[in-house]
Structure prediction request, 675 residues.
Amino acid sequence: MTLSVIIVNYNVKYFLEQCLESVYHSQLTYGGGADCMAEPDGGATVALADGGMKAFELEVFVVDNASVDGSVEMVRRKYPQVHLIANNDNPGFAKANNQAIRQCKGDLILLLNPDTVVERDTFSQCVEFFEKTPDCGGLTVKMVNGEGKYLKESKRGFPTPAASFYKMSGLIHLFPHSKRIAAYYMGHLGDDNINAIDILPGAYLMFSREAYNKVGVLDESYFMYGEDIDFSWRIKLAGFQNYYLPTARIIHYKGESTKHGSMNYVYTFYNAMSIFVKRYFSGGNARLFNSLLHVAIWARACLAWLKRMVQAIVVPLTDFAVAFAGFLGLKYLWATYWASNVHYYPAEYTYVAIPCYILVLMLGSWLYGGYLKPVRLMRIVKGMLVGSALLLVFYSLLNESQRYSRALLLLGCAWTLLSTLGIRGLLSLLHVQGYDLRPTKKRSCLIIGGEEESLRVKQFYEGLGSVKTQTITDAAPDSKRVNEIIHYYKVDEVVFCNKDIATQKIIDMMTELNQMPGRRWMVEYKIVPSDSDFIIGSNSINSTEDLYAEELRTIATPLNRRNKRLLDIVSAMLLLIFSPVMIWVQNDKKHYFAHCWHVLTGRKTWVGTPGSETREPIFGPEDALPRRTTPLSPEVQKRLYLRYMRNYKLTTDIQILLKNIRRIGEVDPKKGLAG
Prediction:
């Protein structure tokens, strides 16, 4: 076996599918430019100079860490030749890789991220380099992001205390090519030169069987982060060299789904670095370095958290302050000219009633999505009208002594609405991101590929309704011509049809287009895998909403996701509060409290479809139907799920939950949906 490719996946089905497609379309060749044909079992056949054929084997392992997005089903359906290991939990990156490493048979082993796309000759170049370089124990390649820009993580140095300090302090950005200050990313080495390096990135980490026999598997003490540093350094300690091969390239979408300012990230990263420091540094140096790391990481996390908090509360606080000032002004005007007594209203009205009025109005706006971006004024209007109606209802139920003035209440509600809308208008004039109130123009999209595939993608985009499309039916277009079309049509998005255009050509074009002068706006680059119904771009790794799928799901909108979660929390709390009564109406009481607790803590949701979201559903759309003795056919179930996702309404979840409220305890957590 020549090469074993190991991919650890967790909830990135679309990226995994594109990655696997690129792997199986790659050429595994020896020598310069031999033509290679993929075999059905995943191997490759190379044409020799004498006309004969020589087979080289390629095996692929996918280790899935309990994904809920349908990744396992996709692999089984589309890539039956893959050696699939489906874990029931998430044991971590190192342990998952080791599961496959212990089973694989390749002379070379590659750890590959699922959010990558390899060129057709990436593997062949790496195999050839290993053959020509006896001291090579580990190898990585040049990584570019989804816009064709070089990723400095492609080559890294040993994280000494000094190198880590220069990185964390930001000095590395001031001196990116300094051998000392930029040592963390080995900035003194050319990005396009073959060089020996210290650390191989986990996104593309290839090593030889000989090195593995001396080094062993990845250290499972690392759950995430640090295992690639540890493994790379052990390869060097075993007497081998790690190399950077820039002539071979991959696209790495480089997911940032883990928030680097979150406490979970801080704990995981600090724990990994602590393990590494204790292992490879000794005495006072280890303690000092560990302390400095601790301070630096937590300081960075706190600053990031503080920044996010300020960004999250600055607009609501401004809304509250302006609304409060307006209420006070109305109070003094009303007390002066109607009651002829500036002190007519008590302090309780100013410091209790007014804040409560404003908070109810803001809550109504929040529930209707008034604080979501991009801003929609009608959400604010609807939310505050509902809040005003609720205030009037509660006002009528208060004691006479607490009814300060219905007129002031109505005027205050009107002022709060108008001031909130005015603040959004000001933010729009200042061009604050997410608050643009100008009419949304149609996005302009340029599709590049063969005639048949371009037409398929064009029809798909036109189905979205808000996209203008242009096409270039050429599998090898000239970058200058593409750039001229981008400028002429003010193109926002360039889509490459991977069925017709090789990944190498896509990377070259993205790089060339980014370097061409004259464009004053950002252009996104996306790739359509062959025969697939999704389109992936550099922004898609952060949000599934950036994936243009044919199964357009209203359930995935931020407003619906938030309201769905709010329903889960409120209903779970009520079911727990009233459990002394509810437990007795259950058909089976066994799992009642477990389900309520799991929904409340976010591990599950009351209603959903398998693989459509990160939380496991207890009930599904089929539970809205009358009880059956036989299960629905897969075709009918799929149509039911699709209709639920496309036409999602919160009332649907409420109806299904109420219809099945007596069945909460009987649903077995190990068997999934109630059915």
Residues 283-337 form the longest helix (55 residues). The radius of gyration is 29 Å.
